[in-house]
Every structure is written in C-alpha cells, then in structure tokens.
Amino acid sequence: MQDLLEIVERLFAGDRGALARLISWAENRDSRFPAALGQIYPRVGRAWRIGITGPPGAGKSSLTNGLVQAVRARDETIAVLAIDPSSPFTGGALLGDRIRMEERTQDKGVYIRSMAQRESHGGLARASSDACDVMDAFGFDRIVVETVGVGQAEYDVMGAVDTVVVVLCPGAGDGIQAMKAGLLEVADVLCVNKSDLDGADRLILDLEDALRLRRPRDPAAAGAGAMTPPVVATSAHEAEGLDDLLEAIDSHRRHLERGEVEDLEKIRRGKRIAQVRRVVGERLEEELWSSSGHTATVDSLLEKSITPYDVAEEILGSVLGVSPKTP
Amino acid sequence: MQDLLEIVERLFAGDRGALARLISWAENRDSRFPAALGQIYPRVGRAWRIGITGPPGAGKSSLTNGLVQAVRARDETIAVLAIDPSSPFTGGALLGDRIRMEERTQDKGVYIRSMAQRESHGGLARASSDACDVMDAFGFDRIVVETVGVGQAEYDVMGAVDTVVVVLCPGAGDGIQAMKAGLLEVADVLCVNKSDLDGADRLILDLEDALRLRRPRDPAAAGAGAMTPPVVATSAHEAEGLDDLLEAIDSHRRHLERGEVEDLEKIRRGKRIAQVRRVVGERLEEELWSSSGHTATVDSLLEKSITPYDVAEEILGSVLGVSPKTP
Predict the structure, then answer these.
(1) What is the pLDDT of residues A194-206, one digit of tens each?
(2) Contacts of B93 (CB under 8 A, 6+ apart)
(3) Is the CB of A99 inside 8 Å of chain B's CB atoms?
(4) DSSP-assigned beta bridge partners for residue B1
(5) Are B151 and A156 inside 8 Å of each other by CB?
(6) Tell me: the pLDDT tens digits for A208-244?
(7) Mind listing the domains of chain B with CATH numbers?
(8) Is the separation of the CB atoms in A181 and B180 below 8 Å?
(9) Is A56 within 8 Å of B55 when comparing Cβ atoms?
C-alpha cells in the first residue's frame, strides 16, 4: 500500500515512470490496479478522449502522428495509446510510423504507449479505458486511442472514447467496404486520408451521400440536435488537413458539451457502466477458469453426447445456484 | 418439447425450414436451443468447417461464391454462414455478391445463411459455432464460415473452424498490413485473391518470406509435423485457382486427420471447451444484467469517487460470495 501511494504521488508529480507502471498494471490486470485507480479517480475526467479507427492501410498511424503535431502546435499536451495486435509474429509494435512517433517522446508534452490486444474480448476495452484514466489523471489535455483493425473489440474500445474518428482512404478500403463493416455508424468524424490519391473526391462525395441516409445512432436522439459527422480530407504524409481534423474533433466536443443531444455527464456515465460490466466479466472469467478447477470439470464432462450447454449449466449451477434452463 | 422433437425430426429428414429455424434459435439465444442441440448432437462432427477471413475488400464473398462452385463440381454439398455486421445502417446482408449467392439456393446441395454480428463479444463465436453444429447435423459435407472484418470477434469465430483461409489481395490490404493485424498466425491456408492485379506476384513472395519466419502457433508443436500454410493464388471473378484452393484446404484436412501435429479429436475437444466458456459467459451476462437488477445497483453506486472496480467487486460479492480483491 505504501508502494501504491508513492506511485500515485509520483504520477501526480508528473513522473513518466509512474505513468508507465500504472498503465502496465492496468494492462496486466495487476491486483494493485483497482486500489491505485481509486486513488487517482478524483482527477479523472478532464482530458478529451479521441478514438482513431479504420481499416488496415488507411494510414491511421501517420494520421495520429500528424494529429500529435497539430495538437502540440496549439501548445496542448497529448497522450497516444496505440492498440497493437497481440501478435507473437510481430511481437506487438514494430512499424516505422510507430518508431518515428516514439522519437517524439523527447517532447515532454507527448506520451506514446502501445498496448497489446488481449485474448479476452472485453479485456482490450477494459484495459484501454483504464489506461486512458491513468493518462487523464496524469494531466494530458488530449488522449488518442488508435486501433489496428475494425472488429468488434475495436468497436468496444471506440465505445469508451468521447470522439470517434473513422479513417478511410481511396482504394481497397473504400466507402462501400466501410458501410459493409458498419464503420459509418460509430463515426463522429469521418476522415478521408491520402486525399492526394485518385478517387479521394469521389469517396468524399459517396460518404456524404451515405451519411445523409444514416440513421442516428440513438433513435431517441433523432431530431434537432443530432449531428451528421463531418467528412474531413487529410493527407497525413503531406501534413495537410490536420488542423481541419482537429477543428472537427473540437466541434464535436463543443456539440457534446452544449448537451444538445444528451448530457455529456450522462454519456460518460454510460461508458462507466459499460466499464463496470467489463470488469465484472473479466473477474468472473478469472474466478471460473483460473482458480476454481472448472476447467477440469469441463474436460471430464465433455463427451460426445453432452453438449457445451449441458456442461455450462452444470458449472453455472454449482457457481450461482442457478437452476438449469429448460425449454 | 413435442415441437422440438418434431423440428429435429424434420431437420434429419432434410427439411430446410427446420434448418433455418434451428439456426435462428441459436442466433437469438432461444431457450429451446440447448435441448434441440442435445437431440442433434450425436450427428455433429462429420462436416469439415472452413473459415474465410481477411480485410474488407479482399473479395471474400466472391471467393466463397467460387468455392461453392468448386465444391459443387465435385458433387459435395456445402453450407455457407456469412457473418454480417449488425449494422442498423445496412440492416445486415445487402451486397451484390450475397444476393448473387442466394440465387444459388435453387441448388439443393447448397445452403446460404447470413448471421448478424452480435453486441456481445463471445456471442458471435458462440452463435456461429452452434449454427455450424446444426448445419453439420443436417448433413452438409462442408461448411464455410465467412467473416466481414478481421477483429477479435472474427478471430474467435475462426477459432471454432477446422481450416482457416486468410484472404488477401494486392493493394491496400497488403502483406505488411496482414502481419500488422496478426492475420498470418491464424492462417492454415493463405489465399492471394485478385491475382490478376498488379502486385500479386510480389505479395505472394512477401507472404512466403514472412511464413518462413513464422513461429508455429503452438510452441509444443514446433518440429517435424508443423505445417507451413501454403499460399494459393486465386481470381474469384475469373474463376481461377479455386480448385487449387480447395486442394489446399483438403491437404490441411488430411494433415490434421493423420494427426501429425496433434490428434484431430483433441483439437476439436479444445474448440468444444472454448464453446463451453462462451456459453457460460453469455449465461452469466444474462443472469447478471437482464434479470437480477444489477444494472440498477451499478447506476446507484457509480459516483465519481467510486471506480468501476469498486462497483464490480460489490456485484461479484453479492453474486458469488467472492471476497473483494485487496492489494
């Protein structure tokens, strides 16, 4: 406990070692993390959290890099959490962009951290939200969470940020593919990157058309206050459009802060509830499969004639005292 | 129960209405599904399950379509489960390829079904595995599960099939991006689609290079029997390479059936255990958040100074009698 208080104190004093350590605790589900979060929680809630997602190859890393520069030019501080796949092959972060970004860590106003994708589903969203809380308590003005892919786990991660930027580029990851992957619904801001490439103008028009047809995310919010996501053209390599992107993010922020659709506190409370559910899910997984020997039960029960449902009910019955569900 | 036995009987008699209904039960977590699965379970395990995954735009739907033709040319039967995003925008399946494929359902040897992506993480893998069990019990020789994206949920879906085909194409979704997304590790067969495009030869060489460096999925299996995934070039639109792809899949099947690395029964048992865990996870979610009023507890507990962990421990304590974790 002494250790813990000391680390929290160091975090508040601006010590990056403490910052890194607390994020590692969150990432590794260290048993000390919950108590540490309790200590720093009163300072959580000031930073604006931006999610960057989109198909592989859209240039998300370069764009994040550009966004860091644009934020720094305004003299604000920024932390980046890059979600890398838990790839035994790549061993996590390995990319040129990431390495170039990490050179930036000479700058005291920037912090870059990568986090491996987790095996468990809710795990990634839980850990990234916790890491954002730590970065937020440290005092960064903005936090960017950048995902690699566009799957369910990434959607959950995006569910925990304030403004979601969906990045697309002309070519293979085009507008129809984005709709196919359900990307448009999660976007607060759409960014067409590599806007110097052929097809960019067409993609922008297609997206604007599609957005006009888009149903609002929350049916109850359909009406006056509902905001259609702006489409911003950028070329991260040419450092073009980055201020426009930042302005679109800030405009979304003001929109939420004015509470035209829903109260910001209420939105953030919803995100906290989702986080509680993730924590409960992880802890239950842990209770069931790490410590209590249910794995052995499954193994012994699982014969050809017994379905996974039968085995599951057996386990649930013993844990929760739930009576088996019968048709 | 009478209903249930009748439906199962109809399934065994080759009735597609019964097939569709049982899959809907699996998809919608109908309370009758577990008992129905118990009835059909003895007939599960004969079909070979093929997963098709890869980045959006790689041509997975066209390739699946081509694979269906190649399988039918051999006079085998095939069922396709297409995982569509649960998109309120697209409303699920809408694509030209899918519509073209569904025309094929005139053919009694083919069954096409789409399934919406679930909100819950384990839900998609659980439901798709259940649907495969139903298709398997119906009597199809092969089952193809095709995903839209390449995220965590899709990985889980791929974890439930026998042979995973990762589809890539030259261009934006290139080899480096595939490594970045950790796609190579899950592949049993790599397929370079749109092989008539520029850059296809280069992509094949890059992938072959990368695969030579790939660590085997299971460290214990490193050695004589470990199989390097073959790279197959296809052009689904030109109907080229589809037999090669089918042959690569069959070769992987023979490899597993010979048990050179691990016993096929043992592998499939591992997949069943994973399914048990998903069912337990879903049932716990249900117990906790639908019926027992914990949502209200969370809402009342969640004040600024109480972290999601504190709230989670409170809930776990009341459900499991677990004592709070303290540092």
Answers:
(1) 999 888 998 898 8
(2) B82, B84, B114
(3) no
(4) none
(5) no
(6) 888 877 655 554 444 444 578 999 999 988 889 999 9
(7) 1-42 (no CATH), 44-262 (3.40.50.300)
(8) no
(9) yes
Task: Report the residue count for chain A.
Answer: 327
Interface A:B, Cβ pairs < 8 A = 265
DSSP 3-state of A50: strand
Of chain A residues 29-88, which have a CB less than 8 A from chain B?
31-35, 37-38, 41-42, 45, 55-58, 85-88
Residue B134 and residue B26 in contact, taking contact as beta carbons nearer than 8 Å: yes
Q: Give which of A98, A118, A152, A283 to mutate to test B binding, by max B Cβ within 10 Å.
A: A152
Q: What average pLDDT score do residues A110-127 get?
A: 77
pLDDT digits over A121-155, tens only? 568 889 999 999 999 999 999 999 998 766 667 77
Largest Cα separation within chain B, whole Å, is: 65
Interchain CB distance below 8 Å, A34 and B309:
yes
pLDDT tens figures, A294-306: 777 777 777 667 8
B69 has a pLDDT exceeding 60:
yes
Is the C-alpha dihedral spanning B145, B146, B147, B152 positive or negative? positive
Q: What is the C-alpha separation between B181 and A147, in angstroms, rounded?
A: 10
HSE-CB of A294 using CA atoms within 13 angstroms: 23
**Tokens describing residue A14:** 């601006």
The number of beta carbons lying within 10 Å of the beta carbon of residue A217 is 16
| Amino acid letter, residue B231 | V
pLDDT digits (tens, 9 = 90+) for A251-269: 999 999 988 767 888 888 8
The pLDDT value recorded for residue A260 is: 72
Half-sphere exposure of B189 (CA within 13 A, CB side): 25
Report residue B188 as tokens.
């049993």
Mutant choice from A43, A83, A89, A215 vs B, greatest count of B C-beta within 10 A: A89
Confidence at residue B327, expressed as pLDDT on a 0 to 100 scale: 41
What's the gap between Cα A154 and its chain centre? 6
Statement: residue A325 has pLDDT above 50: no
Listing DSSP states for B55-114 in one string gives STTS-HHHHHHHHHHHHHHTT--EEEEEEE---TTTTS---HHHHHHHHGGGSTTEEEEE
Q: What percent of chain A has pLDDT over 90?
A: 39
pLDDT category at A326 given cuts 50, 70, 90 is very low
| Per-residue tokens: B175 | 């080899």
**Would you call A326 exposed, middle or buried from its count of C-beta atoms within 10 A (0-12, 13-18, 19+)?**
exposed
Contact between B152 and A150 under an 8 Å Cβ cutoff? The reply is no
Task: Tell whether B317 is within 8 A of chain A (Cβ).
Answer: no
Q: How many CB atoms lie within 10 A of CB B24?
A: 15
pLDDT of residue B225: 45
What number is the ipTM of this complex?
Answer: 0.78
